[in-house]
Every structure is written in C-alpha cells, then in structure tokens.
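yo

u said u wanted the structure for the complex thing, so here. seqs first:
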Amino acid sequence: MKLYETKLLTIICEILAQENILDILKKHQISGYTKYEVDGDGDRGLRGQGLKTEKNIKFEIIMNENKLQDVIEEISRTLFANYAIVLHVTDIGVLRPEKF
Amino acid sequence: MDILELIQSNLLTPIILFFLFGIIAARIKSDLKIPEAISEFLPIYLLAAIGLHGGIEMRNTGFENMLIPMFVAIGLSLLFTLNHYQILRRLGKFNIFDSYALASTYGAVGAVHFSVGLSFLKNQGVSSEGYLAAILAVLEPLAFIMAIFMTNMAVSKQNKTKQQSLGDTSSEMDLGLNQSKVKISKVLRESITGKAIVILLGSIVIGYIIGEEGFQSIKIVFDDLFTGAIVIFMIEMGIIAGQRLDDIKKVGIFLTTFAVLIPTFNGIIGVLISTAIGLSLGGAVMFGLLLASASFIAAPAVLRHAIPQAKPSLYITSALGITFPYNIIVTLPILFTISSFLHNGDGTINLLSIFINN
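structre next:
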C-alpha cells in the first residue's frame, strides 16, 4: 500500500497549558489529536509529580506541512515564555492523507 | 501559656501527626502514595460534607443573618488582596505578575484549611455558623478575579506606554495586547462552574432541604467519617509538601516571613471583626481561618491560565509548604484562644481591665 508523507507534531507540556494548545489547534481547524498523561525528567528536574495541576501531558497531532508551520509558530510565540513545554516534529507516513 | 499548651495538644492530634508523617515519608523517599482516584475523590467528599453541614445549620438558624458577615468577608478579602500586593510589590520587590499571583493566593480561601478548622472545633466541642460554608463558596473565586482584573489593567497600561514610546500602533502590538489579557468573564464562569463551587453549593442546598432528619441516614458517611477522611487527605498533603521542602530555600526569606506573618495578621483581624459583628466563638475562629488561609488547590489551576507569567513555584510552595502547616499547627490555636478570650465574658471589658491592671 502506498504511504503518503505527512508530519507528526508531538508536544510535551504541563497539563495547565493543555487548554491553550487546544485553542490553537481549534483556531487552525485541527480537530484530531491524541493526548496522554506522562511523567519524566525535564532539563530543570523532575516534573509531573505532586498536585494534579502539576502533571505533564503529551499531545500527538498529525497534520500537513502547511498547517504545521503556523501551529508551531503560534505555540512558540504564545507559550514558550511562560509554560514548561517541549515540541518536536517527525516525518511519518499515512494511508489516507485527506484525513489530515 | 494557654496558646502554647493548645498548640502542643493540637500538634498531637491525628490530623497534624499524619500530615507530619506524610512529610517524613516524602523526605525518606518512600514510595508511599495515596492512589490518584482517592486523592481526587477526597476534596469532593470534604466539600460535600462541609456543604451539607452548612446547609443543615442554615436551616436551623436561617440565613437572614448571613448577609452582613458575607459582605464583611468579601470586603476584607478584597482589601487584604490589595494590601498583600502593596507589601509584595513595594517591600518584597516582586514583579507585577508574581505580586498579583501571590496576593490573590493569600487573599483566596482554602477548603482544606476549612475542613481542618471544622474538625479542630469538633475536637474542642464547639460549633460554628453554617453559613460560613456559603461564605467559603463566595470567597473562593473572589481574590483571583480581582487579581486578574488588576493584572489586566497593569498589562494594558504597560502596553499603552510602550505603544506611545514607539509612536504609531502596529497591528502586531495590538495582537500582543489582546492575547496577554484574560477575559474576566471566562475566569468567572470557569470558577463558578468548577467542581469545587458546584459540589459545595449543591451540598448546601441539599443539606438545607433534607435538614437534620434527612441527614441521619447519611450521617455515618458525611459526619462520622469526616475527620478520618481529612487524615487520609493529610497524608497526601504531607507527601506533596515534603517533596517541596527543598523548594522553600528558593522562596526566600522575605516570602517565608510573609507566608507566616500575613496569615496570622489576617486571621486575628478576622476573629476580631467577626466577633464584633456577632459571630459565635467557633464562627469567629472559622471566619478568621478563612481569611488566614491561602489557596493551593484552586490557585495553580486559575492563576496558571490567568497570569501565566507568574512563577507557580513561588505561590504553590509558599502556600502549601509554609502557610498551610503553619496555619493548622499554630494559627488555628491562636485564633481559638483569642476567640475564646473575646467570647468568655465580655471581651472588650476584659481587654480594658488588662490594660488597667498593667
């Protein structure tokens, strides 16, 4: 089967940035995403412990390259300064590119 | 001497001992942990119990006499928040965002404080006015809304001066201005429909409807188990506070002093004023405790969105790591002693006679 190239955006952030990220996704008409709670070490020490509001969350969002640039530009502009957040992009192959 | 004795006996209650135990468990890096579902369930349970208790008391006593204490509490809470801001900004030299975040953390009320206070009074065999639960619900979002409002104003002002100094207003600047402002209405709606207020208000209404009689069938869960449930919650709080002990060093001497002195001051003022407007011995203690308490469960959730520039490590650590243990161990007995002093016999005359005797 033929695989079509597209992008996977992965965001690991504090749980309280979740709403901001969902807002940005919505603004760019992206309705599909996967998220899960995670924990681990950041460059400044252990995160995802303690109070419920201090947990970490990981988003995985598949999107085409056009949208990707706008989305990561907005996330880095509005959230990088004040939230604990890391994002990275992976090239992936999907079967039905029209979905993303 | 009286206060010291009371602090000493308060230290040896299960609530405090389990809290200290939680801290120790965290310090020795034990893997002891309260399961997540239970630690999420307990605040809901505690708020339901507080609400039911309040609702039943309100049915017994009526709620016409609740308005004055409610408005006084609202006024004091706002006044204290502004006062905290001035102290933090001017004396502590914190930036605007940290100052407002901390000011509102200490202006807001803590439901966990309130639960511990109720259990403390139960232990002393003293009751309190039921409408205090309603005041808890009203005060919960108040200080945050005020702080967010003030922060928005400050941000607008900053942006305006920036724009003026740059000459013309570019569209990019406008964008930045609008983004850094948080809609008060959104925060208000989220607080009011938030689970804490919903369960608290719902339980007050249900408590009011069912009254003492209807409560009998659920008393075993919501009354007899109350202190036990707080104890379990205290283990969790102790563990979280214990994990943060290292962070206290980062908080600094100024904020540490602030985190101890401000609750004491606010609490004592609360007891004095509430006694003056006619609250009972226990009621005045709870009123004082409401004003002394700092929020550490609601605060991060609200402030992280509303004032993201503020450092959560400051306001969570000082509220949970310093103020909360201090309040339940020291402030509570102090407030109780002052309130007993004011209520046993005529407080004002006693005060006068002490002055005269000295």
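The helical segments of chain A are 18-27, 65-79. Residues 65-79 of chain A form the longest helix (15 residues).
cya
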